[in-house]
């Protein structure tokens, strides 16, 4: 079995040298490669079922070992990032401003283990891709900070509607946790339904059930924080009282799920973020986004050439 995995890794390593994969995160690259195997089954099967690789294996078995090996490769890359984000790079002081007790190390472990469990579910891996890209690339922090500092719609929604009374840095760290919780919703949704699949959203009642179930899995995390993450799966048009953090997490989870960092923009074309926000504004009802929030993010991207 180890020899078979070594062959699979050798083949995957060659595929990962393809320049077209540059700029993708580990989970995005994984998704691209799995799609490559599905699309090119007829072309790949003669080679991979030959004596040089997996002599006489069925395509189902070949695809399985490629998937398992690819998961191992990706996990070795992203688990240290996850651990760093949860234990070292996130400041949980925001709970103090929300009048809750400080989070203990055990609570952080519960969150980390929940995210590790998420990685055992294919739809969960796809869901986490956007969150990790949003954090690693810095895109979430840029837009949250500027959206707040402009003191327009986003600032009003954060301070007057959701009534978050805390420094901006703590708001950003709350957003980080919210995005992780938003990803975890996939563990409890039917067939991995998520905002990225359009208007196939959860009902408020089902979202509340998920909040309660996840609260039992991470009992030390205050329920309003969990609810704010799970509610990111709800469409804003049908739920106008959604938390601001939920609406932001919904947008950036989708924005970053397929975002390719370092992409060169043709002369005269709109910048990457600007183009995405503009398209999202045209389809905001389908995806359940907050149109006014998208508009402000679009304006920020246009002003900064992003």
Which shape, going by the Cα principal axes? Answer: globular
- Decide which structural class fits the backbone: mainly alpha
Mean pLDDT: 92
Helix content: 55-70%
Low-confidence blocks of residues: 265-270
Number of domains: 2
Distance between the termini: 47 Å
Instruction: Count the E strands.
Output: 0
Strand content: under 5%
Order of helices and strands: HHHHHHHHHHHHHHHH
Estimated radius of gyration: 20 Å
Helix count equals: 16
Report the biggest beta sheet as strand number plus sense, adding barrel if it closes. none
What is the fold's blueprint, element by element?
Blueprint: H1 2-15, H2 26-39, H3 41-48, H4 59-89, H5 94-97, H6 105-118, H7 122-137, H8 139-149, H9 153-161, H10 168-184, H11 204-217, H12 223-230, H13 244-257, H14 272-282, H15 284-287, H16 291-304
Helix pairs in contact: 1-4, 2-4, 2-7, 4-6, 7-10, 7-13, 8-9, 8-10, 10-12, 10-13, 11-12, 12-13, 14-16
Any key phrases for this structure?
2 domains; 306 residues; 16 helices; mainly alpha
Q: Could you characterize the architecture of this molecule?
A:
The chain has 306 residues and is mainly alpha-helical. It has two domains: 1-77, no CATH class; 90-261, no CATH class. Helices cover 66% and strands 0% of the residues. Helix 2 packs across helix 7 (122-137), helix 7 packs antiparallel against helix 10 (168-184) and helix 8 crosses helix 10 (168-184). It is globular, with a radius of gyration of 20 Å.
